[in-house]
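Please produce the structure of this protein holding adenosine-5'-triphosphate.
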Amino acid sequence: MSGLAIKNLSMRFDLPNGSHVQALQDVSLHLNEGELLSVLGPSGCGKTTLLNIVAGFLAPTEGSIELNGHSVTGPDKERGMVFQQGALFEWMSVRDNVSFGPRMAGKKQAEWGEHVDHLLDVTGLGDFKDKAIFELSGGMQQRVALARCLANDPDVILMDEPLGALDALTREKMQGLVLKLWKETGKTIILITHSVEEALLLGERLLVMAPRPGRIHKEYNLPFADMGVDGDLREVKKADGYARTREEILGMIWDMEEEIMGRSEDAS
Amino acid sequence: MIGFIILGVYTAIFVGSFLLITYLVRSATNDFTALKTVTFGDESAVRPNRWASIISIVTIFLIWGSFTGSNYIPGFLHAPAPFVGETTFTYTLENAEGDRDDATVFVRVGELGEKAEKFEVEPGEGMAKDDALAMSASRTETLLFDRNDEATRKDGAKVVAIDGQPIGPDLSIRTDAGRFALTAKGAISFTPSSGLQMDPLYLPPPEAVVNRFFEIATEGYRGYLLYEHLGISLFRVVAGFFFGALLGIPLGYAMGLANWPRGWFDPIVEFMRPVPPLALIPLMIIWFGIDEESKIILLFLAAFWIMIIAARSGVSGVNITKVHAAYSLGASKAQILRQVIVPNSLPEIFTGARVAMGVCWGTVVAAELVSGVNGAGFMIMAASKFQQTDIVLLGIILIGTIGFGIDVLMRMAERKLVPWKGRS
Ligand SMILES: Nc1ncnc2c1ncn2[C@@H]1O[C@H](COP(=O)(O)OP(=O)(O)OP(=O)(O)O)[C@@H](O)[C@H]1O
Ligand SMILES: [Mg+2]
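Below is the modeled complex.
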């Protein structure tokens, strides 16, 4: 079976003081090849935990992950990660960062050179290939992270708030870039974000998660990502249903946050 | 006493030059920092004033030269020198019956450490006879004035005044010639005015140190030329540090990467860390003797723990997202070690290496002080036994200079090899 299957995933963290946190409870999900899923939810609802399990950094207490029919047991180059920040290698040039995956696989420059240079051009880093990482702005650094992930040609790309640390303008440009690259490469993508707008604009499917225990609250299928691929993202925001869906989701998350606040007030 | 005067002069120059320079040199910097209005409390806005650094160094040499009467600096800057030359004083003798008589004492004071030649004078008239006294500068001499007098101390005679000033067993006095006191038995104890200069035994003038430098550089000291003394010390440090790093860094990595080595070596490292290397010198001598071997092993140990800890904390300082990213890009464990963990720990390792080099340099000098036949520490130890203070000073200056040089080199290497330090 092709695609990414998340089956009855539960994750429980046992704390040193004897209590425990149910970070995920019975989460099931199937992603077809080439789908872009954005995940929203209040802080602490288990988004990062879910992504870490899919990436193979954590083993779930229950359930399993299957990618293209084989089960996931650890990190692998078939599942690439784009982190919020701090994951680039400062001791390498931009180009060495981007070509890290192919180089580690023992490939010759002849095999990856063209692909890497193409990615550098697409992400607008062509003139910065030989620069050091600390010479780049935050937005450029995230483009390097994106290019590095794509250069390794993974089947699935996992992004944990990849644009979270950027300013609003840069962020908008990067959203366009993500959409463009998604369409161009046809990758399966899971994108975690705190921004409802970003989730709506980029997600072909959108997952809203609820906390304590972390679980799937509601799922949407959205047309906006396809509109945005060839259009202007600002125009998309004026599209039919965009504002309504946004308000609906915002309301949902507000309710959850309020419930959390209420609960912790009761506790205290 | 001289210490307080020097401190006073030093403070005066500190404050005076500050006022003068701030008055003369308008801040010429017009970079961003110059526009900051809040500088007190903003550490990044505090920069060393280069004028202050220059004046500070000049001041040290000036004070050194001044208070040692160095011929490197003009005479008018010299602190008053100890009295040298001829002088006289009179003492008033009173015999048991209460009769008094004056006699003159002719004094010849030789250079520091060189007693003037003995000489005789005509005894003169009266009950008290004139005396001659030969002595050296800044030293105290006891004058048995009554050897030629008609009334002696045995007869109950005693000195009651010097140059007309009354003096007694518990009343010492100061005249233009110097300081006078009476000994317990009533003899005159005289110290010619010693000025404000330091005795070369305590602080030789700069030229003495410079001359020693050239002397030892060309003729050697205790069978080794200067560069051999310094070279052997450096060699010991580099060898000890090299082996310490060679074994310590991999061990530190192992402790940072795996449970078993972490558990195994943790108690040893934590136990050895607070033991100062100096405390190991006696054991090293018992085990390995006083030769090269024992010193290099000592320095190895000094560097070893520091490098283990540096490498270990270098590993623990690796941002976990970098490691995760590398795994997701398909890197193997060996590749992650080589491509991520090692480069990421380099800044920590460099910091550790700088500390280790500093500790090793200090330890080698101490080890050579205790035993050995060559090295910078040996040089100053041997010289101190013969009170060759100039060699001791020369050694200290060179030890400081080399230690500083090592640190500068390490910092240069660091900037070259880890340009990303502190920028991620
Ligand atoms: N290693 C851990 N040990 C204990 N508890 C953990 C651990 N990791 C996560 N948790 C808990 O699991 C829950 C989910 O955490 P997670 O980081 O997945 O949330 P999140 O949705 O990513 O939040 P945010 O939006 O703030 O990033 C939280 O309550 C958190 O406290
Ligand atoms: Mg998170």
